[in-house]
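Many introductory courses stop at the sequence. We go one step further.
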Amino acid sequence: MRHILLGILAVAVVSLKLVAAQPFGGGPVVERFDPALDEILSVDARLDVIKQDYFGAAEGPTWVSQTGGGYLAFSDMGANRIYQWDPVARQLSVLHAGAGYTGTDLTRVRALDNGRLMVALLGTNGLDVDLDGRLVFCAHGDRALGRMEVDGTRTILADRFEGKRFNGPNDLVVKSDGSIYFTDLGAPLLGGFTNSPDRELDFRGVFRWTSDGAVQLISRDLGNGIAFSPDEAHLYVTGAGVTRFDVLPDGSVTNGQVHVQRGADGVRVDAHGFLYGGGGRSGVWIASPDGSVLGVIRTPDMASDSITNIAFGDADGRGLYICTLRSLYHIRLERSAW
């Protein structure tokens, strides 16, 4: 446990300063499998290094739109912080501290080797913005679905299903009706899902939270990343591959079928129905609406630094942000993802 605490401290005490995105000079970063990729991403696209080998376990990026632009919000599970990256000012700052875990007992939280040090998975993970512009999040350490209010206070929306604590909400997406769909992967459980003495639910599923406080079980299938199709007729959930569900009028889902054979941690879908998946050490793949993978984006240090999640961003929607455990990258797309 001493090593875990030292890892958290090492991440948390690094001073923030003005940073400028730097081009990745390690050669071509885009591998094209299909010429159709050219409409989305140039094979000569440059990968910018925003911050490298800096975070404990970066995750859950989401773009927060503001008049004239916006910023990227993303989690660092190891530091128990939500960061903000301003691409105009080129500045990294702490947006919220302590959002993922409000307790003090670190003996019940799982540790992760990020390739440099051991960090506890206690911070927030998946982030999104609700219909009122508030940040909603998956709190690993507190094993809850939460929301940041306008005044900066923290509200727990749900931490149980049928009286039993969640194993550890992982990723989420806000639907146009205000409901929140989220996965309960159980990543922070000490000893892992199978062996943890703290496990209360005996499955890792997908849930739906509604504005009246109800929590509905959507699927008992293992889920990790989650996203909707542009028309919200389909829900995509990552696992060994990417499963596509049909969404019914009452918000439930049916007919789950593997749509993309490649696995991913996080998944995003652009306005044209193309899927982007990132996770592990195999790069960020881009797939057509029919599930065919068109190409892959490589990141530096892929052999030792796992990709965790991705998000669209920039004022024009042409930015793709890539989180790895320790770093944050950015690449420009040929067209807007919105």
